[in-house]
Write a structure and sequence with these properties.
This protein is an alpha+beta fold and about 200 residues long. The chain has one domain: Glutaredoxin, CATH 3.40.30.10. Helices cover about 60% and strands about 10% of the residues. A five-stranded mixed sheet has the order 1-3-2-4-5, sandwiched between helices. The protein is globular. The chain starts with a helix and ends with a helix.
């Protein structure tokens, strides 16, 4: 089955078999870093195979963390919106890390190496490339394979995507919200910083 068709099939199965009851635990599994009660919340809806998402992360995340997240004025949320099976599996690998800091470090590595692993249609080869990124981040090979085969994690990630679609009507990735207002300016730090500073 084509990976895009497969992920659509999985989503439809969740919708009709589980009747999509979004639990508090699912909401609690959104990847986030920064002070919980920060004045500003940045929500990024992205697919890990999306080149524009990788570019946005590369241009924004490091400076945002240094200038705002580490100073407790911004909380960053990464909302999984996988567009294909490879992106779904990459999300599972990210969740193998043990704490928010480590998760975002692994997320950054996966984006940095996107051109190396997100190629072709051989999902087994893609999975092995993702596992290699995980082991390079000091995560045990056995644990990484267990993460890839974790149905509960898969359901959480796909429920996250479904909820994002319902609440925010995501039509492309990345989609960014700053305090629940859609950010539609340039994907560069100068423009992004200007929007953040308006709220401080």
């Amino acid at each position: 089955m084509h990976t895009m068709k497969k992920i659509k099939f999985i989503i439809i199965t969740i919708l009709f078999c589980s009747q999509f009851i979004l639990s508090t635990s699912v909401l609690g599994d959104i990847l986030k870093i920064g002070e919980e009660n920060a004045k500003i919340t940045v929500k990024v809806f992205s697919s890990l195979t999306c080149p524009h998402c990788a570019s946005f992360h590369k241009k924004i995340y490091g400076k945002l963390k240094k200038n705002y997240i580490d100073k407790n004025v911004v909380k960053l949320e990464h909302h999984a919106f996988p567009l294909d099976l490879a992106a779904l599996n990459a999300e599972k690998i990210v969740r193998c890390a043990t704490n928010p800091e480590a998760k975002f470090e692994l997320l950054t590595k996966i984006y940095d190496k996107q051109k190396e692993w997100a190629v072709g249609s051989d999902i087994k080869k893609i999975n092995e490339s993702l596992i290699k990124i995980g082991t390079d981040s000091k995560i045990n090979d056995i644990d990484l394979r267990a993460c890839l085969n974790n149905d509960k994690t898969q359901e959480i990630i796909l429920n996250e995507r479904i909820e994002a679609q319902k609440e925010y009507n995501i039509t492309s990735t990345p989609t960014i919200y700053i305090n629940d207002k859609k950010y539609e300016d340039k994907h560069e730090f100068k423009s992004f910083k200007r929007e953040i500073d308006k709220l401080l």
